[in-house]
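Risk register update: the risk of archive-format incompatibility is retired. Evidence:
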Amino acid sequence: MFNNFIYKRVIGGMALLAALLVNLPIIILNLEHLHNWQIALIDVTVQVFCCFVLGISVVGVLMEKTPYTWINRNKALVIFGLLIGYCFMLAGLNSLFLPVRMGMISSIIMRGAVVIVMMYLWSKNLIEAERKNALLLENQQLKHDNVLFQLNALKNQLNPHFLFNSLNTLSWLINQDTAKSQEYLQKLSQVLRYSLSMQEQQLVSLKDELVLVENYVFLLQMRFGTNLQINLSPIEPTPYQILPLSIQLLIENAIKHNVVSSSKPLQIDISFEEENIIVSNKISPKLHAEGTGIGLANLDNRYKLMTGKSISIQKDTLFTVRLPLIKHS
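Archived output:
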């Protein structure tokens, strides 16, 4: 953040202002010695320069590595060392053209301490403002991603391929098995109804999500038959929530990217382990797989924004995704 050119200029301006303010009495006193203006000019310049360097150095220590952490023991010791160094530097430079008096030493220490306090307070206000801006941007990003997700979910609900394949399967079932076609139509309507009802939901109960998965799996297995095997292990859903349509997206992703045929049936396993839903499938890539991987990236971004957690993706002989579950608050 503080590598930004604008912030460097702001901090430099703050340090210069602090240096001028604490040295204002020195500047006023030197007005009495304008008859020796060279010495007065050098004196004022040295005082302001040393205070300016001290101010910049203090901000550098405060912002180092942990911009939201103000003072800890190590930083306090470093800043105290900077104050001592400032005192020796300024006293040494002053001794080159003015005699050093005890009153001058106490004045140097006091001005250095004032510079440190001023830079601390100004930097803190600057960071607080930046933190508020960061939170505002994060909230805006969350709203933006939610809108995008809702649009993508709506497109998925009305996905022509999904509807076309589902209606084709339904048409075939009507001619082959009327009772089965009624069950198929019921499952299809439940999937679409759930997809519509979760539009405004950021999290849904795992129980409801698993009902959707069972209905969605039924539709897929009616379409692919034994070419697709989806194993859903027993899961205790009571205390957990999950992002809506997340499991369905992983099933869809596996079908998009892998061969589903009688010679190479696709097996997808869905299980529960250590407060995670695990979806895995054996990798059997299509020659021309659909999609670009954006779906998984968007799912991971949604998880980070909504829960502060990230999904885990592992790829070896199996493609495995772990979805963190959220306990009811």
